[in-house]
Design brief:
- This protein has 250 residues and is α/β, with parallel strands linked by helices.
- The chain has helices spanning 23-33, 61-72, 88-101, 124-127, 144-149, 152-157, 207-220, 225-241; strands at 9-16, 37-45, 47-48, 53-55, 79-82, 106-109, 139-140, 168-171, 180-187, 190-197.
- Strands 2-1-5-6-7-8-9-10 form an 8-stranded mixed beta sheet, sandwiched between helices. A two-stranded antiparallel ribbon has the order 3-4.
- It starts with 8 loop residues before the first strand and ends in a 9-residue tail after the last helix.
């Protein structure tokens, strides 16, 4: 089968999670669910399972670059998701590489600042260097803690960034209290809400990875950003209901 004639392509640049619950394995599974052929660049060989995080196993930039160069020798990617990344500098390098080789690519950054087990990846000092070039992203998908840590609300109030205009933001509502989980999308000068009834029980590992990957897959298929967020929200609901223990499944 010639996959070039059968499936659209999407790229994920993220960490390898051996549990399959998060990172590039979770992204590829979400892509495949929507009929999108996923390819991947690994940024880290993490040591973890779905409930414990031991080591990030970050890869150096030259190894990440070599993977990008190998894939881009075959094709240019119009839809790219970035997840776990070793540093602000490497994140900047990855974005610059993508923009150089795919200037019109839609880039989603899922800002993974800590593991669910508590491991922290970025320092507040590194975060300060993000703001000047966040407009190179098309969509950022933080949860409330990540939104606050990145200082997006404060930066917007100071006029340093225009959320929705410089880049779209989907603020995930999974950490909210109450019976409903509501995600909020800032796009241009509008807000869009995506709500679903909160599913009782223990949360799943890798929900942020799965949601952002599902959004990218649907963008790849030609859906608008608003449509892609709604489809991905519905998909995540099914993910939360399936699987076993901390591992979700659709």
């Amino acid at each position: 089968m010639d996959i070039n004639n059968k499936m659209p392509f999407a790229l994920t640049v993220a960490g390898f999670d051996g549990s399959g619950g998060a990172g590039i394995l979770a992204d590829i599974k979400a892509f495949e669910s929507f009929g999108v052929y996923g390819q991947a660049v690994s940024t880290a060989n993490t040591i973890q399972n779905e409930s414990e995080f031991m080591e990030p196993g970050f890869l150096p930039w030259n190894t990440i670059l070599a993977q990008l160069e190998a894939l881009y020798r075959k094709r240019s990617f119009d839809f790219v998701k970035i997840g776990l990344i070793p540093s602000a500098e490497i994140l900047k390098n990855v974005v610059e590489y993508i923009r150089k080789h795919s200037p019109k690519a839609f880039i989603i950054w899922d800002p993974i600042l800590s593991a669910s087990a508590g491991y922290k990846f970025f320092t507040p000092q590194e975060v300060d260097s993000f703001l000047p070039w966040l407009n190179q992203m098309d969509l950022i998908t933080p949860n409330q803690n990540e939104f606050t840590f990145l200082g997006l609300g404060l930066a917007a109030s100071r006029g340093e960034v225009k959320i929705g205009s410089d880049f779209a933001v989907l603020l995930k509502g999974g950490h909210q209290k109450g019976d409903m989980s509501t995600d909020t999308l800032w796009l241009e000068d509008k807000q869009f809400k995506f709500s679903s009834k909160r599913i009782p029980g223990q949360g799943k590992h890798g929900t942020g990875c799965t949601l952002s990957a599902a959004i990218l897959a649907n963008l790849t298929l030609g859906h608008s950003l608003v449509e892609s967020c709604q489809i991905a929200k519905n998909y995540l609901d099914q993910f939360l209901k399936g699987g076993e223990g901390l591992l979700g499944r659709v």
